[in-house]
């Protein structure tokens, strides 16, 4: 494996001295696997530590160490946990360094010689405020600078700690899993299905194009967009229709924003869902594609990937999603947004009733690919519909408080867990492709209808200072606790069928 990893590193654009040092590190850890987790924690801390993080090739080091961990089949969860601990420690130390030195930072090396590095961090912090602690974690050049700047600017320690923990929980898998999976693959040499990589690239391109189309249409349906202006101009010539326009427009501030994107989303998603459902129950058009997709994912199942997809699919379980809706609604109610809280509760109840009613009304069979067959019918996927409504509504509420041309970023972030949960259902073989698409379309329709209904009550801005960060941390802890509690049962349930 060491030779294969050296070959991989040689293809990267890494200076020769650094490459030699990484090869030495790889060889030493391969001979001393007991130090791997400590090396992960130490490297993550150095990568996040002020000043040191500017000189240490932390990304490459973490890739190498994680690859060695994957080769020795050590726990991926332990590797991510140690990376998270190291990252939190590094950012915390940087914060207190900034708090101690404050105005003397420009005189310290290397900022005394390279002042632009500090200036970039200060500018980023002033632009994004506390959110820069989370955002900066994922931006290489300023990663070790932002916590120090936050300390120098007197950011509240408890608030910084919250952002530090939340960002580390998201950062650790992103930086550990790629190397870990490469190491595990080099060690096991899995037998992938035919044309695996072309199909993977084609699928990613297709999803990216769909998201780009969605964002482009959404932008055109916002105020000052062509479609929005044309619709408003047309309805002004029809008093009754324009009265409905005025009644649904958001009564916040001087400019009233009509929920045209939400109406278009609700109508189009509902129409597509009805059409898709008719195809599923009345024709056999999708049968061959469903079977081919199921066989592709079953051939692609890899023992070291199973825990990752099981963890992802557990995050979409009905019980956990119920807790997520309760947390979402409770946070809104506590912040004084009672109408929003009621709409979130109604969205959760409607999604449950619609999904369950359709499942048992249509009673379509699932694939027979796991040892313990699921207890509910197949169509539509409850995981897909539930996560779409939960994350879709959360994104909609948050995006509403951002400038119109920046909202696509919020929706893009929300699309990731929705896509991963739907993908996990296909990977584990417990749903057909048609089930997941049906769940996504149903969830989008519910999101659109709820947002249209709520627009009349959207009178006050949603506070984005502490509430989203606290709610996100609680949600991540709930996912971790639930996954831990259900882990052994889930491993047995999603084990592939023998033979």
From TrEMBL:
Checking InterPro entries in the record gives: DedA-like (IPR032818), PAP2/HPO (IPR000326), PAP2/HPO_sf (IPR036938), VTT_dom (IPR032816)
Q: Which part of the chain is the Phosphatidic acid phosphatase type 2/haloperoxidase domain?
A: 340-451
Asked if the record carries the keyword Transmembrane helix, the reply is yes
Write out the GO cellular component annotations.
plasma membrane
Q: What keywords sit in the KW lines?
A: Cell membrane, Membrane, Transmembrane, Transmembrane helix
Tell me which SMART domains the record gives: acidPPc
- CDD domains reported in the protein's UniProt record: PAP2_like_2
Record's bilayer topology term: Multi-pass membrane protein
Compartment list? Cell membrane
Major location category of this protein: membrane
Domain of life assignment: Bacteria
**Transmembrane region positions?**
49-70, 76-97, 162-183, 195-217, 260-281, 308-333, 340-358, 378-398, 410-430, 436-454, 466-485
Per the record, the similarity remark reads:
Belongs to the DedA family.
Protein name per its UniProtKB record: Phosphatase PAP2 family protein
């Amino acid at each position: 494996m060491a030779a294969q990893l050296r070959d991989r590193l040689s293809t990267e654009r890494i200076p020769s001295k650094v490459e030699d040092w990484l090869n030495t590190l790889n060889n030493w850890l391969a001979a001393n696997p007991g130090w791997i987790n400590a090396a992960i924690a130490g490297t993550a801390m150095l990568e996040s530590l002020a000043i040191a993080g500017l000189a240490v090739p932390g990304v490459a080091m973490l890739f190498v160490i994680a690859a060695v961990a994957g080769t020795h089949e050590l726990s991926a969860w332990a590797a991510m946990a140690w990376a998270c601990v190291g990252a939190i420690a590094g950012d915390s130390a940087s914060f207190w360094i900034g708090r101690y030195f404050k105005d003397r930072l420009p005189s310290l090396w290397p900022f005394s010689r390279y002042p632009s590095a500090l200036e970039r961090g200060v500018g980023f912090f002033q632009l994004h405020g506390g959110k820069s602690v989370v955002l900066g974690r994922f931006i290489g050049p300023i990663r070790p600078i932002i916590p120090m700047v936050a300390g120098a600017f007197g950011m509240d320690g408890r608030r910084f700690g919250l952002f530090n923990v939340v960002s580390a929980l998201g950062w650790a898998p992103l930086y550990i899993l790629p190397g870990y999976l490469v190491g595990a693959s080099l060690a096991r040499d899995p037998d992938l299905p035919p044309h695996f990589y072309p199909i993977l690239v084609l699928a990613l391109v297709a999803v990216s194009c769909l998201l780009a189309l969605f964002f482009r249409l959404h932008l055109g349906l916002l105020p000052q967009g062509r479609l929005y202006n044309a619709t408003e101009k047309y309805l002004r010539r029809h008093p009754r229709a324009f009265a409905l326009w005025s009644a649904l427009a958001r009564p916040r501030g001087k400019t009233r924003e009509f929920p045209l994107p939400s109406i278009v989303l609700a109508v189009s998603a509902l129409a597509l869902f009805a059409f898709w459902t008719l195809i599923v129950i009345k024709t056999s058009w999708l049968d061959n594609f469903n079977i081919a997709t199921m066989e592709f994912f079953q051939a692609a199942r890899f023992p070291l990937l199973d825990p990752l997809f099981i963890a992802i699919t557990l995050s979409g379980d009905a019980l956990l999603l119920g807790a997520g809706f309760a947390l979402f609604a409770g946070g809104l109610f506590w912040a004084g947004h009672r109408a929003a809280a009621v709409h979130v509760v109604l969205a959760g109840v409607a999604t449950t009733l619609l999904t369950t009613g359709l499942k048992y009304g249509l009673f379509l069979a699932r694939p027979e690919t796991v040892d313990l067959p699921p207890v509910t019918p197949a169509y539509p996927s409850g995981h897909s519909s539930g996560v779409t409504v939960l994350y879709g509504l959360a994104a909609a509420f948050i995006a509403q408080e951002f400038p119109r041309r920046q909202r696509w970023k919020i929706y893009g972030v929300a699309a990731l867990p929705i896509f991963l949960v739907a993908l996990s259902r296909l990977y584990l073989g417990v749903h057909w492709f048609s089930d997941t698409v049906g769940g996504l379309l149903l969830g989008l329709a519910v999101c659109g209808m709820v947002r249209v209904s709520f627009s009349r009550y959207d009178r006050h801005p949603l506070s984005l200072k502490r509430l989203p960060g606290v709610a996100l941390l609680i949600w991540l802890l709930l996912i971790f606790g639930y996954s831990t509690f259900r882990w052994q049962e889930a491993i047995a349930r999603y084990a592939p069928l023998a033979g």
